[in-house]
Amino acid sequence: MALIIGAVAALIVVVAGGGTAIALFSGKSFVGTADVAAPIPTPSPWTGATATNTAVTVPVPAGWTVSSKDNESISLTDPNGWGFLSVGSGVQSPKKTVQQQKGIIEESIKSKSPDAVECRAVRPTDSTIGGVKGISWHMCFTVVSSVHSVPAEASLFVATNADGSVWYGVILVTPQSYMVNLTSEAEPIIQGIVWKLT
Question: In terms of Cα–Cα distance, which of 151, 146, 147 is closest to 138?
Fold first, then answer.
């Protein structure tokens, strides 16, 4: 669980030449849509390039780049550089429920962005990614640098195994105005996630 919090803490704003982008440098969890909650599709076989570690295998479609990878997580940047997807899983001790994880993640995001709230039109829903049942929800917040501020959105998925000893997470992070596009671009990745820990 501390690894999930680390991913949220790694969310920063990069301002270069008047353009603003959101970067997630190390991913340990979390998923996304702007104003409409779409059901998470069931896994489908992926036949293209992949990134893999000891916890998960993630499809890497053409144009996407692996921005970071460690033993528990893999983070990808979308082809336009506006969105980031991070997938992770790991053993957790003490054991935690999905609701406990959700609460910890929300508090961590709020500690970095005090205006963070669940997005207005998207309520937490039960969902399944890669055969693992969990909760999906969206948080909206403002990322502020010394010069700019950007309305951002994180679409989150978190789950645990039956006894709470393993966590699973997926996150999509982008400016709010780009979330619908990012969700569409990320669909084959999310559909092809294969978890290795049970």
Answer: 151
Token pair, residue 128, equals 């399944």
Mean pLDDT of the chain: 79
Please report which residue ranges of 82-134 form alpha helices under DSSP H: 98-112
Model confidence pLDDT, tens digit, residues 20-46: 333 332 333 333 333 333 344 445 567
Residue 19 placed within a domain: no
d(CA 73, CA 7): 9
Within-domain flag for 95:
yes
Alpha carbon distances (Å) from 72 to 8, 84, 176: 15, 17, 27
Confidence (pTM): 0.80
CATH number at residue 108: 3.40.1000.10
Asked if the structure places residue 178 within a domain, the reply is yes
